[in-house]
Amino acid sequence: MTYATYGDFEARPAAAWGAVLSMTLCVALLIAAEFMPVSLLTPMAEGLGATEGQTGQAISISGLFAVLASLLITTLAGQLNRKWVMVGLTALMLASLVLVALAPSFTVLMVARAALGICVGGFWALATAVIMRLVPERDVPRALSLMFGGQAMAAAFAAPLGSYLGGMLGWREVFWLLTPLVAANLVWHVIALPSLPARGRQSLGALTGLLSRPYFRRGLLAAMLSWGSAFTMFTYLRPFLEQVTGVDVTVLSVLLLVLGLAGFIGTWAAGRIKGAHVARLLMLPALVMGGVTLALLLVGGSVLATGALLVVWGAMNTAMSVIWMSWMAQNAGDAAEAAGSLMVAAIQIAILLGAVVGGLLLDGLSISATFLGSGALAAAAILLIGNGQRLLRPAR
C-alpha cells in the first residue's frame, strides 16, 4: 500500500472523502455560528437588555479569541491525536451555541462568544494540515475547495435564514435550531475522521522558525493585505448599496444572496488549481476584488451592474481562501500546523483591521473613501506579490 507525502505529512492510503465532507459541514456551521448574530443584532440586544453597540462588541470578541487560539492551539494540543482535537473543538462549538441560546445576560453572551472564538481559531489553524493528511498530494487543492464550499454555503444562506427565522420564531430559537446540526457533525467527526497522531511536539519555536523564512513572511504579509482589502470593502458593503445604489431591504437581500451564491463558482474553479500554477494565481484575488471595488465607485448607481460585479467579487472571495491555503500547503508543508496558525492569525487580524480602517474612513470622510482605501490595500498586495516567484520556497 503506497502513501503520498506532502512535506513530512503522510496522506492516508486512500482519500478519506467522508472525513473531508465532515470538515466541510463543520466549516459551514462554524461560519454560520460566527456570523448569524449579525442578522439578529437588534432582537438579541432587546432580549438581553443591552444596546446594539454592546451586543456588537460581544459578537466581535470571537475574532479576538480566534487570533489567540490560532497562535496557541498547536502548542496546547501537544501530542494529542488531531482527530480528538477536532472533535473537542466541535463539542465546544455545541456548548457555545447552547450557552448563547440560554444566555440570561450580556456577560454570559460574552463568555459564549469567546468560546466560539476558540473554536474558530483552533479549527482553522489545524484544518489545512488535517486535509493534507486525509487525501493524496494531488487531491489537496480539490479537497480544500470542497472544504471551503462550506464557507460559500454559510455565506449564501446563514444571514438570510437567520433573519427570516429570527422574525418568525425568535433569536434564541435560531441558535437552538443549529445545535442538532452541530451534534450530528460531532458524531460524524467521530465516525469519519481517521486517527491522526501528532507529528512531533509543536512549540512556539516552530512559529518563529517559519517567520524566519523570507518567502513565507512575504506571503503572510501579502495574504494580510489581500484579506484586509476584501474586508475593508465587504464590512461596509451595505452602506454603499443603500447610499450609492439606493436599494431597499428586499433588493439588498437579493444582492447579498447573489454574492453568497457566487461563492460556489469560486470554490469549483479553485478546485482545478494545479500545484505548478499557484504562483501565477496569488495576485488574482487582490487584482480582481480590488478592481471590482473600484469599478463599483464608477457604476454603483446601477443595480444590474452592481449585481454583476458582486457575482465576480463573491466568486473570487471563496477562491482566495483555496488559492492561499494551497500556497501554504505547497510551501510550508513541513510545518503545516504552525503555518496554519500563522495564516489564521494573520487573516483574523487583517479582517479586524480592515473593518476598523474602513469604519474610520466612512465616519471621517465617506463610503467612497472606504472603497478607495480597499483599492489601495489591494494595490499594495499586487505590488508585493508580483509574479509570485518570491513567495515560493526555494528549490532544494
UniProtKB/TrEMBL annotation:
Q: Where in the cell is it found?
A: Cell membrane
Keyword Membrane among record annotations: yes
CDD domains linked to this entry: MFS_NepI_like
One term of GO molecular function: transmembrane transporter activity
Specify where it is mainly localized. membrane
GO terms under cellular component: plasma membrane
| Cell membrane recorded as keyword | yes
PROSITE patterns, sorted: MFS
The UniProt keyword set, sorted, is: Cell membrane, Membrane, Transmembrane, Transmembrane helix
Q: Where do the Major facilitator superfamily (MFS) profile domain residues begin and end?
A: 1-393
Q: Which residues cross the membrane?
A: 14-38, 58-77, 84-104, 110-131, 143-162, 174-198, 219-237, 249-269, 281-299, 305-327, 339-361, 367-386
| Superkingdom of the source species | Bacteria
Q: How does it sit in the membrane?
A: Multi-pass membrane protein
Pfam families attached to this UniProt entry? MFS_1 (PF07690)
The protein's name is MFS transporter
